[in-house]
Specification:
It is built from 13 helices and 11 strands. It has 331 residues and is an alpha/beta fold. It has 2 domains: 132 residues, Glycogen Phosphorylase B (Rossmann fold); 170 residues, Glycogen Phosphorylase B (Rossmann fold). β6, α8 and β7 form a beta-alpha-beta unit. α2 packs parallel to α7, α8 crosses α9 and α8 packs across α13.
């Protein structure tokens, strides 16, 4: 039996598909797993031993469809569920099971604060697409695999950080999912531990300001490393402090203690850190209490709809500091 899994992006969403892929591979006798994603996500999936064949979309959907039509798939497992996956399903003409995005329920929650969402994590909803095959959740959590030829040496990091450090994931896809730089500076100065900043090139200005405020114990890695190298730094860390963004899920895959700083989005959207049932790693959701406007978006936006940005401006740095120190000592 050949199954084609589809998830085009993004980092976090693809990591969140790994339990479904693993469970399918281990529970469906003789199954051949194919996975289609964007070419830019190649390093994220190529090392996964539960996937037999990889397919990559590089701008031209028609060419991708033509290539897929040469393979006799039995079923499609659509974990993205958008117009492009609809075109693929129509072109291949085989039975398909699609992830329920619950877009209306998310809209009602974000715009009207009416919560009709099931209390089911997105990972479990991905696995639900496999009910036809009697696949169940093995409760082993998320996976992250490096490409076979990849090696990142700890010696690439400053000697001051080799005995342990806290990873600050300072990036996010939208502005109202990012904590202001002054709050990050306050946190860095209070915890007084070696810190490595993780982010993309778009986060260099924020990272530079943060590093300048506490240069003695912050190493600025933002924009210096690619996806897999940044993931390796996450793997080496003792504690990860993150916005609601992809590297949060990478950290959970490595069973790292995580602290998530929530702004425009919220754990009630069911995208929080996801661990195996027997994981010992602690996790804390940092949420400003008593805000009747949160979540205000299902994915984030580039401004606060209310204009006050209280969800990030009022983050309690003392609480965050306490949690970082508590988790760091527990390692």
């Amino acid at each position: 039996m050949r199954l084609l899994f589809i998830r085009f992006s993004s980092i976090g969403d693809i990591v969140l598909t790994t339990p479904a892929v693993r469970c399918a591979k281990n529970q469906i006798p003789g199954v051949e797993i194919h996975f289609l994603t964007k070419l830019s996500m190649k390093d994220l999936v190529i090392g996964n031993p539960n996937i037999d064949h990889f397919h990559f979309l590089d701008n031209n959907l028609d060419n991708t469809i033509e290539s897929l039509q040469q393979i006799p798939f039995d079923y499609i497992i659509d974990l993205h569920h958008n117009i492009r996956t609809w075109k693929i399903k129509k072109a291949l003409g085989v039975p398909a099971f699609s992830y329920k995005k619950l877009s209306l329920q998310k809209w009602l929650l974000a715009k009207l604060q009416i919560n009709l969402l099931p209390k089911t994590h997105v990972c479990d909803r991905y696995i639900d697409t496999l009910q036809h095959f009697n696949v169940i959740n093995d409760e082993k959590g998320l996976d992250y695999f490096f490409p076979k030829d990849f090696h990142f040496q700890a010696s690439n990091l400053p000697t001051s950080h080799l005995a342990g450090f806290v990873a600050f994931v300072i990036g996010a896809s939208y502005l109202n999912k990012k904590m202001p730089v002054q709050k990050w500076i306050e946190l860095a100065k209070q915890i007084k531990k070696p810190i490595i900043l993780i982010g993309g090139k778009e986060d260099i200005a924020l990272a530079s300001a943060l590093t300048a405020a506490a240069p003695d114990f912050i190493y600025n890695a933002a924009g210096k490393y690619d996806l897999k190298e940044s993931a390796s730094i996450i793997q080496m860390s003792q504690v990860v402090v993150s916005h609601d963004t992809g590297f949060l899920h990478v950290a959970a895959a490595f069973h790292k203690p995580t602290i998530t700083i929530w702004g425009a989005t919220s754990p009630v959207l069911q995208f929080e850190a996801y661990y195996s049932v027997d994981a010992k790693s602690p996790h804390f959701n940092s949420i400003v209490p008593n805000l009747n406007c949160q979540p205000c978006s299902k994915q984030g936006e580039n401004k606060c709809p209310q204009g006050h940005f209280a969800c990030m401006r009022l983050q309690n740095i003392n609480t965050l500091t306490t949690k970082v120190n508590e988790y760091y000592k527990a390692i």
